[in-house]
Design a protein that fits this description.
It is a single chain. The chain has five domains: about 80 residues, Immunoglobulins (Immunoglobulin-like, Sandwich), CATH 2.60.40; about 100 residues, Cadherins (Immunoglobulin-like); about 90 residues, Sandwich (Immunoglobulin-like), CATH 2.60.40.10; about 110 residues, Immunoglobulins (Immunoglobulin-like, Sandwich); about 210 residues, Cyclic Phosphodiesterase, Chain: A, CATH 3.90.1140. About 5% of the residues lie in helices and about 35% in strands. The chain contains five helices and 47 strands. Strands 9, 10, 13, 16 and 17 form a five-stranded mixed sheet that branches. Strands 1-7-6-3 form a four-stranded mixed sheet, with no helix packed on it. A hairpin with a 4-residue loop joins β14 and β15.
Length: about 775
């Protein structure tokens, strides 16, 4: 029989280099197009590519997603006819082309207060450089920096990695006080350029004859500063690729805009008649002054970077809150704000800061807002009834409490202030009561149950509840500002519908690092799964499901691990499941008939159960060549005395027959295997069900709910939940997955080689609440 080989190239074939974001259409190197299917069995194709049969040919089609770097890909493609298979490995490279780019034009930066292409020294600058990256979908942030020997910023100014150029510009002094005034013998000859010094007006010639010594002058002359053009090269990088651009900041000195300035020399350039040597005041105080309580004394200081020669003003004093006054000397706000009955009120007003020097002035204005809370505003009202009802022991909690504040846009946090919650439950700060009430004491993990008997003391409900397991506790709700809080006492009854302990059996794949990273990037994408849509995001039983966990059996009686291993002895083997379509379901409270949450899940496909049909637990195959083999037909073993074997042990010949105990899968009387055990999910469940009692209520609530338009519960679904979301949001999330994510579930190898069980019994018959692995055995009779 000829070897099946549809390939025209050897393993390791290079499919070439391709550019990200560019369409790819590659014919598979094969000599047959029909009757064969091709799938990737290891490694991964570049994201955005897939193997498709199109136009009578098998191809690799798609558009490679944007990458952060040139990336090498290796993968193995399997050709299968359903009977024969043949594998080939390939490699390809995806190149990135999207270098980050600057939006801010090169050259002078408009860092002035009014957007001028200059700025005075002793002034504050804040200018944002802008850039973008074609590869921003990869999540790599852009970073700005000035490399060594790439120029300097003005002294006092810095560039952060977000591209913000900011700081208070320090002047570069041209003549310092210590250099003197330039008079004869007062300093070293030609030390500094005194041609630009400011002449003293109170020296020798300003006084009557002989009233001061010869050549007297006052050394308190204000030093002058230089104008300078600072040039620097900024590097913009996404962590892998980078680009550079040169910028300049022109800093004008103190005498630049005086009438006797010689530096402009009649060439004003970017300057105009409104240019002034006076520095524009720069406000430090934030425009949002915060929220204050009415009927209190309030003082709010207002600050500038430099308050020399400043006169403060207010555009409209009536815009201030009642009782608040403005100090024009220091710019502060102060006063007693009277009682205010309204919930809250916001005030907006504008202040001015004017600097006067030598008959000239420059003004800076800024608008401020502040909020006032009235005395009856910050009330917190409980929405949840004091009686929380009941919850069955060992069932996942969906309980929560809610209180609202009369302060607009205020969140409320919760804390347990008295009493205790049932063991296994905790209170989240957002009001969710998460966990599972524990019914039985777990001595191994020191997990307390409803009733504890430890051999030394007997405690019923830990002295905190009555014998019918009614817990009483107090919770305090507080608004985020700490203005007020309120406490309410709650009661919660824990029922015990089952006297038997039950466990859940789940399974998940052990992914290789590359696939784990792909899944992590997908499931943690806030664009696909908006945080505001997620149900109980801080509850490990709900929220985003990051672990690809698949429920196999819900509610099987908790037994020794050996009992489950025995049930797995036949028909359970390493198996790969396939991803199906993305679906949604609604969980409805069986008591109140209210929708609780929605779930987004991906249907899993068992290749051995097409269209929901499955094989029986075992299949017998007739084998005409089978022969009956009798044990020890020559009787050579049984006719030998044990004593003789002991005497002649060193020289005695060993029997030619081995006798072993039969397993349930192989029989010693039949040398040829004629019974096989199908390896499918339904058969797994049937075998596990024989371990002990079953409790259907351990199925997730959404599987026990009746879908819209149906008459019966949904029942068990072979699936992997992606997220639990708030009612009415699942459709949007599904759309995001299909339209925005571009995620190919086929890039994940969902191969199962073990079960995880939530609890087992130990040798002392105690229930141990801890996940245990049950690894599959692999034999040739399981198919």
């Amino acid at each position: 029989m000829p070897v099946f080989n549809p390939w025209t190239v050897a393993s390791g074939y290079d499919l070439g280099s391709h550019v990200e974001g560019t369409s790819v259409d590659i014919l598979l190197p094969i000599n047959v197009q029909t009757g064969v299917t091709f799938t990737v069995i290891s490694g991964i194709l570049p994201s955005g590519l897939a193997i498709r049969y199109l136009g009578g040919s098998w191809k690799i089609l798609g558009t490679p997603f944007l990458t952060t770097n040139n990336t090498d890909f290796s993968f193995c493609i399997r050709a299968s006819t359903g009977v024969s298979i043949s594998d080939r490995t390939f490699k390809m490279v995806v190149y990135t082309t999207g270098l980050p780019e600057f939006i801010t034009p090169a050259g002078e930066l408009p860092v002035g207060v009014g957007g001028q292409y200059y700025v005075m020294d002793n002034s504050y600058v804040s200018f944002q450089l802008d850039g973008f990256d074609y590869n921003d979908t990869t999540g790599q942030p852009l970073r700005y920096y000035i490399a060594d020997n790439d120029g300097t910023l003005p002294p006092g100014v810095t560039l952060n990695d977000k591209g913000l150029v900011s700081g208070f510009i320090k002047p570069v002094l041209q003549i310092s006080v210590g250099d003197g005034s330039g008079n004869f013998d007062e300093s070293l000859f030609d030390k500094v350029g005194f041609d630009f010094g400011k002449n003293s007006t109170n020296g020798y010639d300003s006084f009557n004859y002989d009233s001061v010594f010869y050549d007297y002058s006052d050394l308190a002359t204000s030093p002058q500063s230089l104008s300078a053009n600072y040039q620097f090269r900024v590097t913009l990088t996404d962590g892998v690729n980078s680009t550079q651009r040169v910028f300049r900041i022109y800093v004008a000195g103190s005498d630049e805009f005086r009438a006797d300035s010689t530096t402009l020399d009649g060439q004003a350039g970017d300057f105009n008649a409104s240019s002034s040597f006076i520095r524009t005041p720069v406000w430090i105080t934030s425009g949002n002054l915060g929220v204050f309580r009415a009927n209190n004394y309030i003082t709010i200081p207002m600050a500038l970077y430099d308050d020399t020669s400043i006169v403060f003003g207010i555009v409209d004093e009536t815009a201030l809150p009642p009782g608040l006054k403005f100090d024009p000397n220091g710019g502060d706000l102060y006063g007693v704000v009277p009682y205010q009955p309204s919930v809250s009120k916001t005030y907006t007003f504008t202040l001015t800061a004017t600097r006067y020097e030598e008959g000239e002035s420059v003004t800076s204005t800024k608008t401020f807002t502040m909020g006032l809370l009235g005395e009856v505003t910050s009330q917190i009202l409980w929405s949840t009834h004091p009686d929380l009802g009941s919850i069955p022991a060992n069932y996942v909690s969906t309980l929560s409490i809610l209180a609202t504040s009369t302060v607009p846009n205020t969140s409320v946090s919760y804390v347990l202030s008295d009493g205790v919650l049932p063991n296994g439950l905790t209170l989240n700060p957002d009001g969710e009561i998460i966990g599972t009430p524990v019914q039985y004491y777990d001595a191994i993990n020191n997990i307390k149950g409803l009733t504890t008997i430890d051999g030394r003391t007997t405690t019923f409900d830990h002295d905190t509840v009555t014998f019918d397991h009614v817990y009483i506790f107090s919770i305090t709700a507080q608004d985020q500002y700490g203005y007020s809080d309120v406490t309410r006492k709650f009661t919660l009854k824990v029922t015990t519908p089952n006297t038997t302990s039950y466990s859940n059996v789940t399974a998940k794949p052990l992914l290789v690092p590359g696939q784990r990273l792909l899944w992590k990037d997908f499931i943690n994408n806030a664009t696909i799964f908006p945080s505001g849509s997620i149900y109980r995001p801080n509850d490990p039983n709900f929220g985003l499901r990051t672990d690809l966990n698949m429920l196999v059996y819900a509610g099987i009686e908790t037994e020794l691990a050996a009992a489950y291993v025995g049930a797995m002895g036949l028909g359970v083997k390493k198996k790969r499941f396939q991803f199906g379509s993305i679906k949604t379901a609604i969980a409805t409270d069986t008591v109140t008939d209210q929708d609780v949450y929605e779930v987004v899940y991906i249907q899993m496909i068992d290749p051995l159960e097409p269209n929901g049909k499955h094989l029986p637990l075992s299949i017998s195959v007739s084998n005409p060549t089978s022969q009956v083999v009798t044990t020890d037909a020559s009787n050579s073993i049984w006719s030998t005395n044990l004593a003789d074997l002991m005497i002649d042990a060193p020289t005695a010949s060993r029997p030619a027959y081995n006798v072993t105990a039969d397993s349930t899968g192989y029989t010693a009387g039949n040398p040829n295997t004629d019974t096989y055990y199908p390896n499918s999910i339904t058969n797994w469940q049937q075998r596990l069900s024989k371990v002990g009692l079953n409790e259907r209520n351990y199925l997730p609530l959404w599987m026990r709910s009746i879908p819209v338009g149906k008459k019966e519960e949904l029942g068990y679904v072979l699936c992997v939940p992606l997220c639990f979301c708030k009612v009415g949001t699942s459709t949007t999330i599904v759309t995001n997955i299909k339209k925005l994510s571009g995620f190919d579930f086929k890039s994940i190898d969902f191969t199962i080689d073990r079960f995880t069980i939530t609890a087992v019994r130990n040798s002392s018959n105690q229930v141990v609440q801890s996940d245990k692995y049950l690894v599959f055995r692999n034999d040739r009779i399981t198919v």
